[in-house]
Specification:
The chain is α/β, with parallel strands linked by helices. It is about 45% helix and about 15% strand. The structure holds pyridoxal-5'-phosphate.
Length: about 230
Amino acid sequence: MNKQTATKNLDEIITKVEGARLRISEHHIVKIIGISKYSTAADVKTLYEAGQRAFGENKVQDLKQKMEELDELPLEWHFVGSLQKNKINNLIDLNPTLIQSLDSLDLALELNKKLEAKNKKLSALLQINSAYEDTKSGVMPEVALEVYKQIIKLCPNIILKGVMSIGAHVEDEKIIKESFKTTKKIFDEVVPFGAKYCSMGMSSDFELAIASGSNMIRVGSTLFKD
Ligand SMILES: *Cc1c(COP(=O)(O)O)cnc(C)c1O
């Protein structure tokens, strides 16, 4: 990807985000995370030069590789993939800005234990399976509030900052919107407990997600397209 393409891709996304967020309120700020999992470190660097600062990966090994390769740039890195227990220590050592995919109380307890042992803290979002899809990770909406409170109570080394969801994998916009609304409702319930981010929306549905209240989108394919 060349600089011109990177600037064009980013500008197109920013224009759409601006339109969508202003339809909510001029005070509604949306953070854009570039998901670089299908792309190279060189492409991340090009997008950084075009103005993008926050990126995300879904595999611990890929995150490590890109972070190391781009060590000299002031980037912010997010982890968005399913976290295997045997990779927890590696992820902690990378000190990501935000783990967006904390998808069970069990995983939170394990992460907390390993953070305690290293005397570290990490910020995370609770992933919610608001589309009720077997192929997706996350806690079910019905128990999300309770799990959120349990993590706050039992995991002092995890700083919970909100919720994350992947929209329903269907064509019907109404169903996708329904899944976003489910997550937004839970987000509103956890704001009193310090939640700041409602992370939802990917390349195909980020405008719909913002219309449903998202304030953090994760865009991969449209941002990195050639
Ligand atoms: C890959 C991925 C994205 C980005 O997907 P695109 O459709 O390419 O924008 C966002 N969130 C998660 C959790 C992902 O794994």
